[in-house]
Amino acid sequence: MEFTPPNAPVVALLFLGTALLVVVGAAAAGWLSLRGRRGPARRIVEGLSVVLVLYMGALLAHSFTSRDRFLEPGQLKYFCELDCHLACSVQGVRTEKVLGSGASSATARGRFRIVSVKTWFDPHTISARRGDAPLWPNPRTIRLEDTAGHGYSLSRAGQRILDPDADPDQPLAHPLRPGESMTTELVFDLPDSATGARLLISESIPIAALIVSHENSLFHRKIWFRIPPISGAGAVLQGRCAR
Question: What is the pLDDT of residues 62-84, one digit of tens each?
Fold first, then answer.
């Protein structure tokens, strides 16, 4: 099982086409209004209003009929980068009280939960003309939630211990070439009382709120990675179906 953004190129073109139409139409209406031709300007504005109502209606219809989905360890979640796709999957999870040693160590307030995430540049999603150039992914929002609905951001201290060369706020922002993959450990500091967990990795781009059927569009439900319970400190659960 995997999740691929539905009709990603189509909805991206729909958004860009609608935005271009609104900008050109607004400019034309303004120019006509300045020349005293208020009747044609008003008709353009009315037409643009209809276009916007139809677009927002489609966006909200997709959002209100969406549902939360859960991917098990090893199952892929694809992110569309317009001309290609990156896929993420959870590969393992472990817990620790302390990371590192000596002066270069970090102690959790509760217990560190460390989730291994594999990012893969699917070579089957690129055009023949793209070549082998590296891809830098869009910024990501990363959040862990327990069964009580409490959210947890990345532990900056933990991320610095495990990968001192990476941005602790964007640990998945490493470039990949087609066919390449990389495994990154994401560190969260959870209370000892926290039970269960689900992980959200989503694109952090403002325009996504206005893209039809996008996970981050207005009121749209999310695609989560399920993080299974761990029986003890240091335990590791390996994912399956990894590529």
Answer: 999 999 999 999 999 999 876 67
